[in-house]
Design a protein that fits this description.
With 152 residues, this protein is an alpha+beta fold. The chain has 3 helices and 7 strands; from the N terminus they run ββββαβαββα. The protein has a single domain, classed as Aminopeptidase (3-Layer(aba) Sandwich), CATH 3.40.630.
Length: 152
């Protein structure tokens, strides 16, 4: 992978905050947030989950339009911010390629968020939410970075 100075995902206008267990990247009305913590999702605590899912980091914000009254981010900006954030965390020694990322996808029309955004990136749907809208997803860091390299 390229060094961060040559990183095709980086833009100078990124506002990056890296604290002890949290990475936040914002640009205008766009936000990516990653929490570094071990999460254990168990079948008895998560509807329709068949096996434990253990992750070392969680995407808690992946928004191309934080404020709905302001313009949406340019296409793919949020995904590039995520790619840059993962590479930054690797460079800082905070995560590794074999770590698991989890996210809880919000409900969307026809589950488009899951089917058109997250699955093409390499995430696996682990379990749907109780109303079959949104759900728990996971992927290896290496899988997402492979998608990043092949997509941009």
């Amino acid at each position: 992978m390229k060094t961060l100075q040559e990183n095709k995902f980086y833009q100078e206008n990124y506002k990056i905050t890296l604290q002890s267990n949290f990475l936040d990247i914002t640009v205008d009305n766009t936000k990516v947030g990653i929490t570094l913590q071990t999460d254990i999702f168990k079948p008895n605590n998560y509807y329709k989950l068949k096996k434990n899912v253990i992750s070392q980091l969680r995407i808690n914000s992946l928004y191309s339009q934080v404020n709905k009254q302001k313009p949406r981010a340019p296409k793919n900006l949020t995904r590039k911010m995520l790619c840059h954030g993962l590479l930054l965390l690797i460079k800082k020694g905070r995560i590794h390629l074999n770590n698991i990322i989890s996210l809880e996808a919000d409900p969307s029309d026809n589950n488009n968020l899951i089917n058109k955004v997250y699955i093409p990136m390499g995430f696996t749907l682990e379990a749907m939410d109780i109303e079959d809208e949104g759900g728990l997803m996971s992927a290896k860091v290496s899988t997402i970075l492979n998608w990043c390299e092949s997509s941009f």
